[in-house]
Design brief:
single chain; mainly alpha; Rhopdopsin 7-helix transmembrane proteins; 3-stranded mixed beta sheet; 13 helices; 3 strands; 73% helix; disordered N terminus
């Protein structure tokens, strides 16, 4: 079958989270507020990290990049989902659907590696404190961030290679609020068993390997801290428990959806919300609001921009205009 006849579907219909009008209005308000909080919260973190000299360290450099990825991850589908709550025709073009698949795997793959990089930074800080400055140099931080984007790019291009040339000639209803790869694959006009196996191999290796690295690093950090003092162990347990909670909320749905794509479950739509919306809003809470240095820097930033400026603090051109 040639390309002209194979891909006759020009758009897909997104069934969304609910077809009930009352629920759609509630979801519109709820997710609109969440999205604004995600964008403003992560932008505030990026502004704080870049403007406060005390936060110019590897840990906060990686945190600033995580906030940027969180904004991107929350923006690839959420604005359209919010707009679709007020629309009766929830459609997306074929190219738009492919773009969503591209960006979701780019950002999730990049975030997985970025979380591993942050865990490695904490491992070096706790287990090799005397060599921390040498190991976590500016060059190493840059390499870790570039590696995260490279892994995300390779991951998403390999996933697209399974999808972009599939023949779509019949059903076009995607039972989700965005073009989810396993659900789109099932709409192809051929036996998708081999494609699903390739999806399992690709996403499964990335998800399970990064998740294993994260858990292993946290276990090593906790064991190392246990030999220091009971106070340090309590503090480390509290911090690591919060971090592991976010990791489970992010990796759990990804592993469930992409490692077993052969069957569809209604709960998959709810699980997809966790790594596309809830994780980007939880990361700022876990990685910043529980951090003393970050809270101090945030208060300084908010105080600086909220208090009114005195005449003597205004630029010269403004003071001249008063006379």
């Amino acid at each position: 079958m040639d390309k002209v006849n194979s891909s006759v579907v020009s758009e897909f219909v997104l069934l969304g989270l609910s077809s009930t009008r009352e629920f759609q209005l509630f979801f519109f308000v709820f997710f609109s507020v969440l999205y604004v909080v995600i964008v403003l919260g992560n932008l505030l973190i990026m502004l704080t990290v870049t403007s406060d000299n005390s936060l110019h360290s590897p840990m906060y450099f990686l945190l600033g990049n995580l906030s940027f990825v969180d904004i991107c991850q929350a923006s690839f589908a959420t604005p359209k989902m919010i707009a679709d709550f007020l629309s009766d025709h929830k459609t997306i073009s074929f190219s738009g659907c492919i773009a969503q698949i591209f960006f979701i795997h780019l950002f999730t793959g990049g975030e997985m590696m970025l979380l591993v990089s942050m865990a490695y930074d904490r491992y070096v800080a706790v287990c090799k404190p005397l060599h921390y400055v040498v190991i976590m140099s500016r060059r190493m931080c840059t390499v870790l961030v570039m590696l995260s984007w490279a892994v995300g790019l390779v991951h998403t291009l390999s996933q697209l290679s399974f999808t972009v040339n599939l023949p779509f000639c019949g059903p076009n209803a995607v039972d989700s609020f965005f073009c989810d790869l396993p659900r789109v694959t099932k709409l192809a006009c051929l036996d998708s068993y081999i494609i699903e196996v390739l999806i399992v191999v690709n996403s499964g290796i990335l998800s399970l390997s990064t998740f294993s690295l994260l858990v292993s690093s946290y276990i090593i950090i906790f064991i190392t801290v246990c030999f220091k003092s009971s106070a340090a162990m309590t503090k480390a347990f509290s911090t690591l428990a919060a971090h592991i909670t976010v990791v489970i909320l992010f990796f759990g749905p990804c592993i469930f959806i992409y490692v077993w794509p052969f069957t569809s479950y209604p709960v998959e739509k709810v699980l997809a919300i966790f790594y596309t919306i809830f994780t980007p809003i939880l990361n700022p809470i876990i990685y910043t609001l529980r951090n003393r240095d970050m809270k101090t820097a945030l208060r300084k930033i908010l105080t600086r921009y909220s208090r009114p400026k005195k005449i003597s603090e205004m630029p010269v051109i403004v003071r001249n205009s008063l006379y």
